[in-house]
Amino acid sequence: MSQMQTQYVVVGGGMVGTAMALGLARQDKDVVLIEAFPAPAFNPSQPPDLRMSALAQASVEFLTDLGAWQHIETMRTRPYTGLAVWEHPLARTEFHAVDIGAQRLGVFVENRITQLGLGAALAQYDNCRVIHSTVLSSDAKTGRVICTDGTSIKAQNIIAADGVKSGVRESAGITTQGWQYEQQALGITIKNHYGDVESQNRGQSLTWQQFTPSGPLAFLPMHEDYASLVWYDTPERINQLKILAEQDDKADLHAAIRARFPNDLGEFEVLDCASFPLSRMHAVRYIKHNVILIGDAAHAINPLAGQGVNIGFQDIKCLLAVIAQEGNRITEYEKPRQRANLQMMTAMDGFYVAFSNTNPVLKALRNIGLFGADKGGKLKHAVMKKAMGI
To answer: What is the domain count for the chain?
Structure first.
């Protein structure tokens, strides 16, 4: 059995875990990162991945500060400068970066590419060792982590970045609160076919979301003319769509999308799709003994506004500042991050409840609200900056 000692062991090498390890390495901490499934190498000819994230401008700046963004942007990204939201077409609200003097609202990036960029930056630090294995057991009191390959690590701190079903969190005895939403989502990768350059430039720089009683319909532009559609609906309807997706000929799925999505979609072809459940989860504690939770190990949020990885990066930014200043991790990390993440969860649930019904009074009120938001001036700009994380 291989024996190791370290100041910090980070369990989980996805986007959040690798960013945490990189931040610690930049502070000259001794770090071990455990990642069972390293991201496959990038090749420009590869088709786009289904898993992608809308990185808010604040997250882009954070990744830049970590030295990772320079690696990410050499692969493939899609900045977006506009955001449209509506239920009824007459109550359409549009947000544009130029209105607040910004170059962009954020950037869409495939999760694997963000992970690879972070990994490239991390490779420059000799004080971080990476182990490609899974965790067999962890002890929150002693800081001992044992991997399935026989490696035994004694750490002063265990940072759990191992996702919603965190084994480290469970081993530490940290309980969670939450529920499964009634809706599920289908992510669909498409290739757009624009009629002219003007349509292409507008289409690939604008992300939009239409609210319907059965769930939102969203368009997320990707590199070149690729895009991701997100279709929220009942589990029964999503299962029906999955059956269509399994057919060699995607004509039936294409027809279902065309019948459901607004005309903003234009001409396209379907490439791939995958479904995922929607859930809310919040750990009652982020810290117990020598264990610290970050990202999805601490919270899972409705993806309605694409804030999942962004609030995970905010966890890291806060925790790194506390570690650098040798501050109180309970009062300066756990409590403020719990409060901020709970506020974001509550806001997303408010949108979910407000738009997931057919009550005519509520329908009128929410469309009036969207119409008013479009004319909101300073309030509208404040909402934009909040979404950008600035």
So the answer is: 2
Q: Which residues pair with 109 in a beta bridge?
A: 53
Mean pLDDT of 144-162: 97
* Residue 64: how many other CB atoms lie within 10 Å: 13
Q: What's the whole-model pTM score?
A: 0.91
> Which domain, by its residues, includes 299?
3-55+110-178+280-352
Domain boundary among 246, 279, 312: 279
CB 96 within 8 A of CB 374: no
Q: Residues 142-147: contacts with CB within 8 Å, 24+ apart? A: 142/290, 143/9, 143/290, 145/9, 145/11, 145/34, 147/34
What are 258-282's pLDDT values in tens digits? 999 988 888 999 999 999 888 899 9
CA dist 66 and 57 (Å) reads 14
Task: Examine the domain organization and report whether 331 and 243 are in the same domain.
Answer: no
Q: Are residues 188 and 265 located together in one domain of the fold?
A: yes
Say if residues 97 and 387 touch (Cβ distance below 8 Å): no
Contact predicate 342/301, CB 8 Å: no
Residues 288 and 345 occupy one common structural domain = yes
